[in-house]
Amino acid sequence: MKQIVVIGLGLFGGNLVKSLVELGVRVTAIDINRDKVQAFRDVARQAVALNATDEQALRSVSVDDADAAVVCIGDNVEANLLVTILLKKLGVRKVWARAINPLQQEILRALEVDGVVNLEEEMGQSVARSLVADHVTRHVSLSPGYGIAELKVPASLVGQTLRESRLRERFHVNVVAIRHPKAEGEADESETIEQVPVPETVLQERDVLVLVGSDADIRRLALD
User: Fold this and answer.
1) Which DSSP category does 161 fall into?
2) DSSP readout, 29-73?
3) Could you give the angle at the alpha carbon of 182 between the alpha carbons of 177 and 183, nearest 5°?
4) CATH for 3-117, among 3.90.550.10, 3.40.50.720, 3.30.470.20, 3.40.50.620?
5) 122-222 belongs to which homologous superfamily?
6) In the structure, what pLDDT confidence band is assigned to residue 151 with cuts at 50, 70 and 90?
7) pLDDT in tens, 13-40
8) pLDDT for residue 155 is more than 60
9) Up-side HSE of residue 56: CA atoms within 13 Å toward CB?
10) Which of 157, 105, 149 is nearest to 125 (CA)?
11) Residue 72 and residue 88: Cα distance in Å, rounded?
12) How far apart are the C-alpha atoms of 168 and 183, rounded to whole Å?
């Protein structure tokens, strides 16, 4: 089971912790604010209040044993960069960091972090894609021109099996999961998620495909 450290429990960091836990990841949540940490005591495997710019404090929670760490500090650029440097120094396998302006983004890339999260830029791109292709409900960039997207099943595919849709052959995209939302008014409105769907899965009108592929191919499918 993967172990990931999330440093900074603001809106972005807090949501990241919850999403990782839902995916079965063992998360260590860190923030200097004790009240924020308290809110994640029953969510994360470990929630710790400490100053992440203190090297010894980071060592005390064994961050170097983690598979990855994400620096989500957004309101203090100096602290963001210092924590990133410390994580690299401590030998964390993968380090991701949030950037709130172009200069910070360039500095983080110069530090050779494994990934830079620019929420404003990615949100703008996501909104643009959704406006151009109505069926795309969410998009996460993995690299330039390539990403993961959630796409409502196009009307032309409703009733077909995944095998019959031939999405990989026709659009060069891979379906990694299918979300099956419950219909409104049903007693249980929670959705189910089919991970690694089988070829015989029949695509329903309310289903949402989770796809991996190039932005161009995903857009082509969305406009089909």
Assistant:
1) B
2) EEES-HHHHHTTTTTSSEEEE--TT-HHHHHHTTGGGSSEEEE--
3) 135
4) 3.40.50.720
5) Regulator of K+ conductance, C-terminal domain (3.30.70.1450)
6) confident
7) 998 999 899 888 999 999 999 999 999 9
8) yes
9) 0
10) 149
11) 15
12) 28
Q: Which two tokens stand for residue 56?
A: 């010894």
What is the DSSP code (8-state) at residue 149? E
Q: Which amino acid is at 121?
A: E
pLDDT of residue 218: 87
pTM > 0.85: yes or no: no
Site of tokens 């989500």: 72
> What letter represents residue 161's amino acid?
T
Domain boundaries, the chain: 3-117, 122-222
Position 170, amino acid: R
End-to-end CA distance of the chain: 38
Could you give the CA distance from residue 161 to residue 198 in angstroms, rounded to a whole number? 9
**What ranges in the chain are assigned the alpha helix state H?**
11-22, 34-38, 55-60, 77-89, 102-110, 119-132, 162-165, 167-171, 215-222
Pairing relation of β-strands 68-71 and 3-7?
parallel
